[in-house]
Write a structure and sequence with these properties.
Two copies of one chain form a homodimer. The first copy, chain A, is of the alpha/beta class. Chain A has a single domain, classed as Aldolase class I (TIM Barrel, Alpha-Beta Barrel), CATH 3.20.20.70. The first copy, chain A, is 47% helix and 18% strand. At the A-B interface, helix 2, helix 4 and helix 5 of A face helix 2, helix 4 and helix 5 of B.
Chain lengths: 215, 215
């Protein structure tokens, strides 16, 4: 599964890239830079092409986290991303909202950036346990640290495991899929390419090849 | 210092409450529920009344975190809130953007919710050290745990310390100000009151009284 991280900030360009790559991707991940620039309506627009995962990295108290999740699902999102480090009450609150909307919840274990090793990596095993206990749909693990993906995959049981941090941040597709990822999240390598369509096609083929080899 | 947490989702109501309470508050804190519902322009509108702190609890990789901070300051925010838990590279990236805009950065140490004790509280001392090292403006500490406010205050040196979690979540103004807070962040107790104006006035007077008593 290839998820497009649509981190452009222009509404028109976002729709264009989503459209020309839609044949090759399974879902579109939107983050705050796009949603704040283009308005929350962008989720509805994009969801006509592909399921949209709202990467809002929710990390607030349960009350506020529920409100944020509610807005995302009301706006047409199919899935939402919440930070495990915010605690189990926050993850449960988001899960509850997602259930009402028949939506999916993904829990961040540790960020793919260097800072993800400072505090989060020390708890990501516990965060996976919590995610399983609460019964979310999947976890987000760092493509920049294949050994962590392997370890988290082992602990994650039947949870889906998606990895951002591929290519631009240094993660290798083959290595990450071999480590057990169910899918990768790719942004800049696609939308900053001279031909987002061709790049999406190429990466999608690589992912399919890996799924055959390793799954 | 009394900060109004303006967590309503209706643009008109947000402006009304901000206006009638503006005499009694030092700043307005906006969070995603309002900004996603009313649009990012709400920051500009409110900033005509009072300085606005964008409580975006930024917790992404540095690249994305910078983009989010940039949008907040470009939209008229005076300050921004970032999660210490995201790591020092993220906090530094947000600080860099804030500096260009002459803006303030507040770092969350631990959430005021129960979940804040699961992972964050184990690192909030380190997070304060990091916040000092990076040279941000202040930290956010939980009014629901006065003993932690006291400990974090001691470590925080000259950083401002603001506390959410007052009244509705159970924190006591007197106890928290005595523990060393420079200000409190109050939302529901004001905006859900039959008279937000009177409630803001009352709380503001209590905070002023505490500042005289304890500072």
């Amino acid at each position: 599964m290839l998820v497009l991280a649509l981190d452009v900030t222009d509404r028109k360009r976002a729709n264009e890239i989503a459209e020309i790559t839609s044949k090759y991707i399974s879902a579109i991940k939107v983050n705050y830079p796009l949603v704040l620039s283009a308005g929350i309506q962008i989720i509805e627009e994009l969801s006509e092409l592909k399921p949209v995962i709202a990467d809002f990295k929710i990390s607030d108290i349960p009350y506020t986290s529920s409100l944020i999740a509610e807005i995302a699902f009301d706006s047409g999102a199919d899935g939402i991303i919440v930070h495990g480090f915010a605690g189990s009450d926050t993850v449960s609150a988001v899960k509850k909202v997602a259930e009402r909307h028949d939506g999916e919840v993904y829990v961040v274990t540790e960020l793919s950036s260097e800072g993800g090793t400072e505090f989060m990596a020390k708890h990501s095993d516990e965060i996976v346990e919590m995610a399983k206990r609460i019964g979310v749909h999947g976890i987000i693990a760092p493509a920049t640290r294949a050994e962590r993906v392997r370890e988290l995959r082992e602990k994650a049981g039947r949870l889906k495991l998606l990895c951002p941090g591929i290519i631009t941040q240094g993660g290798s597709i083959d290595e990450i899929m071999k480590a057990g990822a169910d899918g990768i999240i790719v942004g800049r390598a696609i939308y900053s390419s001279p031909s987002p369509e061709k790049e999406a096609e190429k990466i999608s083929r690589l992912v399919q090849g890996c799924l055959k080899k390793y799954k």
